[in-house]
Design a protein that fits this description.
The protein is α/β, with parallel strands linked by helices and about 150 residues long. It has 4 helices and 7 strands. The chain has 2 domains: about 70 residues; about 60 residues, Roll (Chitinase A, domain 3), CATH 3.10.50. It has a 5-stranded mixed sheet with strand order 5-4-3-7-6. The chain has a two-stranded parallel sheet with strand order 1-2. It is elongated, with a radius of gyration of 20 Å. The model has no long low-confidence stretch (mean pLDDT about 90).
């Protein structure tokens, strides 16, 4: 085929990795919305590379669909809650439930829609919940909830 019939711009765009937009509601913490907006601003000021355009499209959608959840101190695990939980051996962990774009397991920020997030969501101190993990289900007890 002659090169005259190849649309090089189209070929480059199709090589950009599109991020899949999740089917779950885009619940975010106030900090999560700020991070999304900052990322969008940073992308708007850069060149027109195919990957940047794909990222710009993704973050534009995420900002537009964001539903900010303001944490309240109602005694139940919700988005924005810091949760301490223990397994049957007494090993404790502390995580915060956040939106999927804010999640960072190394920082203890867990997507509310993840298996751990779903297990904890709506729980109260003293509740035992089942964390459905690939390595097998684990019963954990919620031992503390905090909004900071």
């Amino acid at each position: 085929m002659s090169r005259a019939f190849v649309n090089e711009d189209h070929a480059q765009v199709s090589q950009a990795a599109e991020r899949r937009v999740s089917d779950q509601p885009n619940y975010v913490t106030p900090r999560g919305l700020e991070l999304l907006q900052a990322r969008l601003r940073a992308l708007q000021g850069s060149d027109n590379e195919p990957q940047r355009l794909a990222d710009l499209h993704y973050f534009s959608q995420r900002v537009q669909s964001a539903q900010v959840v303001m944490p309240t101190d109602n005694g139940k695990v919700q988005i924005g809650s810091w949760v301490r939980f223990a397994d049957e051996h007494g090993n404790e962990q502390r995580v915060c439930l956040v939106g999927e774009d804010e999640a960072d397991a190394a920082q203890g920020l867990i997507n509310w829609g993840s298996p751990l997030g779903r297990a904890l969501m709506g729980g109260q101190v003293g509740d035992e919940v089942v964390w459905k993990r690939p390595a097998g289900d684990l019963t954990i007890e919620i031992v503390g909830i905090d909004t900071r």
